[in-house]
Each structure stands twice: as C-alpha cells, then as structure tokens.
Amino acid sequence: MKWVVKKESWPRFIVKSGVVLVLIITAGLAFADRYRIGIDRQLVKCIPGYTFYLIDTKDTELKRDAIYSFSAEGLEPVYEDGTQMVKYLRGKPGDHVEISKEKNVYVNGEYQGYGLKHAEKLGQPEDAFFGETTLSEDSYWFMGTSSESFDSRYWGTVKHDQIIGRAYPLF
Fold first, then answer.
1. Rounded to an integer, what distance in angstroms lies between the CA atom of residue 96 and that of residue 79?
2. Beta-strand (E) ranges in 12-162?
3. Other beta carbons less than 10 A from residue 27's beta carbon
4. CB under 8 Å to 160, separation ≥6 — which residues?
5. How far apart are CA 101 and CA 122, in angstroms?
6. pLDDT band at residue 8, thresholds of 50, 70 and 90?
7. Does the predicted model carry a pTM greater than 0.90?
8. CB-CB neighbours of 46 under 10 Å
9. What is the pLDDT of residue 147?
C-alpha cells in the first residue's frame, strides 16, 4: 500500500506555525508569571535529598509544615540580604516557640528539631539561643530538617512580605 502525502501550501503552514508559536509563548509567559525554579546551593542541605524546587509565587495561603521560599534579610555575614532560602514553615503568629537547654526546638510543645551547630559561627554562646517566645503578628518560624540547617533558631522570624511562595521539591 502506498501512502500519499498531500503537501500543504507555504502560507497555510506559516499561519499554523505562527498560531502554535503564539500558544507556546503565551503558556510560557503564564508559567513564568506564577512559577520560579529555586536552587539550594548549600553543601549540607537543610532539606536533605533535594536541590531543585518549583516555587509557586501565587500560593499565598501559609500552611504549617509546608515548604516555602523566602528572601533572607539581616542574615549577614552568613548570607547576603535577598538570598533566596527554602525551609519548612514550623510556626505561625500566636504560636509558642521554645529552644531548650538540651538544644531541642519545640513549637506549641511539639518537637521540631535539635541542635545549635551555628552558634559558634555567629560568635555567640549556645545559651544565648535558649528561651521561649510567642510569635507576634506577621512573624513566621522556618526550619530545615537537618541539625546543620541555618534557620530561625539563629536569626529569628521571617515577615510575611519576605515570603516568595510555596516550594515543591523536584529533585
């Protein structure tokens, strides 16, 4: 059996190609308006096993224990202002946060993590980080899952306007 292929005219082909190209560009721009790719460049990952994240900048509903990306402020000399970070949201306004003398971190009495590995790097004794507080309005507590994570244990809370969006681990 012989297949007959009818050739399409150039003007028709160009119009169809143009329509497809416009659709691809529109979809790409819509995607880029909402999503970003985040990269965790640290040697010791705060969330082990992941380096790349899809960040949804339009997801504004903050859910406890979800992963979010935020812009670092006041973390110098460890990180420059504006450095994009990815951590778990562990505490929201009104929550009670405690760092015990045993170096355990609790939010509303629930264990969240252990360790104060960066106290020395910051030039402070570990006991400077012990204590408890209730998170004020517009204050969010972020942590990684690793005891090596440089997170709210050391620099405190993040304000809502610093939050870029919800992050989804890719690989």
1. 27
2. 35-39, 52-56, 67-71, 84-91, 96-99, 104-107, 110-114, 131-134, 141-143
3. 10
4. 62, 138, 140
5. 18
6. confident
7. no
8. 21
9. 85
